[in-house]
Amino acid sequence: MIVDDSNIIRRKIERCNDHNVFFVVARASNGEEAFRQFQIHRPTVVTMDLTMPKMDGLDCIRKLVELDQNVKILVVSALSDKATGIQALKNGAQGFLCKPFSDEQLVQALLELVN
Amino acid sequence: MFSLNLGKYRGILVSVALFLILDASVLVLNFYISFEISDDAAGVNLSGRQRMLSQRIAKSLFTLNTVEQGTEGFDAALNELRMSIDLFDETLRAFAYGGTVTGADGSQVAIAVVQDPAGSSAIEEAQKIWEPYKVKLDNLFTAVDHPFDIDPTLSAATAAALASNLKLLKYMNDLTVTLESVASSKATELRYIQTAGITMALINFFFIVGHFVRQLRDSDLVVEQARRETTEILQTVNEGLFLVDQNLIIGNQHSSKLNELLGAKQVAGEKLLSVLENIITEKDAETTRGFIELLFDGRVKEKLIGDLNPLQNVEVFISDDSGAFIAKHLKLDFARAYQDGKISHVLVTVLDITQEVVLEQELEKSRKQGESQLEMLTSLLHTHPSLLRTFLENSRRSFDKINSTLSQPSKTSAELRVKSKNIFAQIHNFKGEAAALNLEYFENSAHVMEDTLSDLVNQEELVGNDFLQFTVQLETLISYAGQVEQLANKLGQFGVDASQQPDDRAQQPVANDTPAQADDWQGLDDIVSTVAERHGKEVLLVKSGFSEIYLEPEYKQRIKELSIQLLRNAVVHGVESPIERRARNKQNAGRISIHLAKISEGEMELLVEDDGHGIDFEELREKARTLGRWKDHHIDQWSKRDIINLMFMGGVSTAAGLTLDAGRGIGMSAVKNSVKEFGGKILVTSKLGRYCRFTLTLPIISESQAMVANG
User: Fold this and answer.
1) Is B421 helix (H, G, I), strand (E, B) or coil?
2) A-chain residues within 8 Å CB-CB of B283?
3) Phi and psi of B628, rounded to 5°?
4) B346 and B258 in contact (C-beta within 8 Å)?
5) How do the domains of chain A map onto residue ranges?
6) Quick one: B531 and B616 in the same domain?
7) Burial grade of B603 (CB within 10 A; 0-12, 13-18, 19 or more)
8) Nearest to B550 by CA among B540, B559, B541
9) Do A94 and B286 touch (CB under 8 A)?
10) Set of chain A residues whose Cβ sits within 8 Å of the Cβ of B303
11) Measured between alpha carbons, how far is A74 from A101 in angstroms, rounded to an integer?
12) What pLDDT, on a 0 to 100 scale, did the predictor assign at position A48?
């Protein structure tokens, strides 16, 4: 599942997956939507932006992990504040990818996440 | 894990097992033999008793012979004889065939068949004598138990006793001696076994001890070797290396370089954040704590959190031995360290990345320099072309001199040193001229070249090749000067300042420093028409007063630059487009007047006025809002004065976009700075939709001395 408030970033992430390593089951533009979509589709891997309207990434990560302990979350965010990134990982995400990123970096990070 | 280590401990385990088995065997044998010895002792006792019983039987018979039948003594002797016979018979049988007999204390004692040949033959012989003897004795008891005369049977029994008694005693004695010797040999056997067992156990023990000591010594050697190697590595390695545990406490071992890098004397066993306290901010310290906590959290992917490391570039200022501070850039890398598959520590590597950072900064600087070159080229627009030309001519001469100095043959270090000193003087002169004209690129390049040269002068041994770096720098500078010259020529053709071109000057009969002429200011008309054309505007420029006041040529040039800025501003921001003007019932062509007048002794006034739409304070306020530099509620409170100040501030412009003429927001701030430099004043008056007027009060500077003092 791809969670990002920017549709450009969402498309970019989806396009990285041209190799069909992953199957995108859902997309969301904010935390609340992500939480709803998650309950329906139960994705195994989630890419998560941090600054989003309605429910931000930090809260969303916490709620997703509450729902599924085994979900693998990759935070994909700009590195304006490292402390927020660290908090995201403490909330249950397992990796952090800094924006801007290359297609290869994203695929590598996702593979690292599931291995 | 156990099976892994068994190989190493197999020898010792086998030895210990052998030791235990040996001990157990000796113990079992001991028990067995001691039981046998105890049995043998009982046999010896009983055979001794047989000796005594054989004698007692004889004694009882003789008593019966002497005591009258029916008396108490007769009965007692008879009873004793009966008991003795029974006991002797029973015991003898037991010795021969095995069985239990009544012991001295009345308990039943088990007796094994005597195996020893001497013993068994003594028993056999005793039995041969005992059997007929016992028949006689039995006959006596038959007579006693019946109302027969006992005398014949007593006599027969007594006769048998006389015949057998001593033989029986002998055989029973032989048995006793035999049994005693068997028991004694068994005791000896037991001693041998015990001695052998203990000896073997001792040998085993010494083997174990020896083995242990050897193994300990070997492993100590390995440990010692490893320790030495670790120490050597830690002392030699160029990075700061140490481990921190989950409580962020630094381990006891760390590389020697660490103290130097962190500028801390005591590091081992300290809290990491206390050691870093003085070189990182509190916020970074907190982030570092969080980051290390993540590393100890096995769930998080180590490879995917590197970006979050807050200490990728820490700038520190550390005082050296002489007390002077050196700036260093450190990078702290963190990596998990595992023990038994669990994250036990975090390995911290402290790297001195100063060189990389400096290199990066230099790259950035040269990139910016590239940009500033461009900026400088545009700023040449505002530089006095004749001065620029002179500067470039001088430069060319300097470069030629330097080149000829460089090509002179010189062999010794001393000669080369003199050479570099000469070149240094040339470059220094060039730098001075560049600085005077505010040509920063030239000035900075010359500065760098001066550094290169002073390094050469200070170098102990100097060879021709050492000038290579300087030669490259000089080449770059010469080529840049060439580009500037080309550009200056183009600018001259463009007509920015045609009157100042040397070619034109040659045709003019009057020198530059004669009192002001209208022609000097002719360029203003050209600029205004060019700018107006570029912006689709029509402008009529009215000039006055420029021939009245004599100004020192350089100062005049500066005033002209000021005028150009103000006129550009009036064209771009003041005068409306013809369509707008028609809508406001104004003539298509905007009117801009520029006026220079002496207002007192030593003071003049430069006035620039346009009949455009005046200053729109609200528009400027909105413009300020979009810049996002100030808070909205502050902008709301701004007075008109604040907004005018804003107009003179660098980086603020109301032009719709960036153009050659306006929009960079530096023109008006340059005006303000120049006026300030000259010690003048600016007055702004405006009416929305009608006009805008800038009145500059400036000193009159007519002598070059004054200008030099000011510049």
Assistant:
1) helix
2) 83
3) 70, 15
4) no
5) 2-101
6) yes
7) middle
8) B559
9) no
10) 95, 112
11) 13
12) 94
Cα dihedral B170, B174, B180, B181 sign:
positive
Question: For residue A95, what pLDDT is reported?
Answer: 93
Instruction: Give which of B549, B520, B518, B544 is closest to B701, Cα–Cα.
Output: B549
Residue B230 lies in a domain: no
Give A-chain residues touching B295 at CB under 8 angstroms: none
Minimum distance, in Å, between the CA of residue B316 and any CA atom of chain A: 20
State the sign of the Cα–Cα–Cα–Cα dihedral B248, B252, B255, B260.
positive
- Expressed as residue numbers, the domain containing B561 is 516-710
Q: Select from B538, B528, B530 the least CA-distant residue to B581.
A: B538
* Whether B304 and A112 lie within 8 Å, measured CB to CB: yes
Same-domain check for residues B299 and B164: no
Q: Which neighbouring-strand residues pair with B99?
A: B111
B352 SS3 class = strand
Residue contact A82–B287, C-beta within 8 A: yes
Predicted pLDDT of residue B509: 36
CATH of the domain at B281: 3.30.450.20
Residue B376 lies in a domain: no
- Pair B197, B249 in one domain: no
User: Is B526 within the bounds of a domain?
Assistant: yes
Return the residue of A nearest to B291 by Cα: A86
Chain A residues within 8 A of B287 when measuring between CB atoms: 82-83, 86
> Which range, A7-11, A33-37, B263-267, has the best average confidence (pLDDT)?
A33-37
Token output for B516:
């002001």
Which CATH number fits the domain that encloses residue B411?
Answer: 1.20.120.160
Do residue B621 and residue B585 come from a single domain?
yes
What are the tokens at A50? 């941090």
Average pLDDT over residues A83-96: 93
Contacts of A83 in chain B (CB under 8 A): 283, 286-287, 290
Each residue's pLDDT tens digit, B253-312: 899 999 888 888 888 999 999 988 888 888 899 999 999 999 999 889 998 898 899 999
Domain boundary among B301, B333, B352: B352
Quote the tokens at residue B259: 């103290």
**Strand B240-244 to B250-254 pairing:** antiparallel
Check B301 against A82: CB less than 8 A apart.
no
Which chain A residue shows the shortest CA-CA distance from B286? A83
pLDDT band at A72 (very low <50, low <70, confident <90, very high): very high
Query: Which of B616, B618, B614, B656 lies closest to B635 in space, CA to CA?
Result: B618
Residue B373: predicted pLDDT: 65
B362 lies in some domain:
no
How close, in Å, is residue A53 to chain B by CA atoms? 22
Place of tokens 């003789």: B62
pLDDT, mean of residues A28-53: 92
In this prediction the pTM is 0.44
User: Given B212, B247, B266, which residue is the final one in a domain?
Assistant: B212
CB B210 within 8 A of CB B225: no
pLDDT score recorded for residue B499: 42
Domain count, chain B: 4
How far, in Å, CA of B84 to CA of B605, rounded? 167
Right CATH for A2-101 from 3.40.50.720, 3.40.50.2300, 3.90.1170.10, 3.50.50.60: 3.40.50.2300
Which residues in chain B land under pLDDT 50? Answer: 1-4, 495-518, 655-666, 705-711
**Cα separation, B428 vs B441, whole angstroms:** 14
Nearest Cα residue to B553 out of B430, B706, B448: B706
Using the beta-carbon criterion (under 8 Å), do A96 and B304 form an inter-chain contact?
A: yes
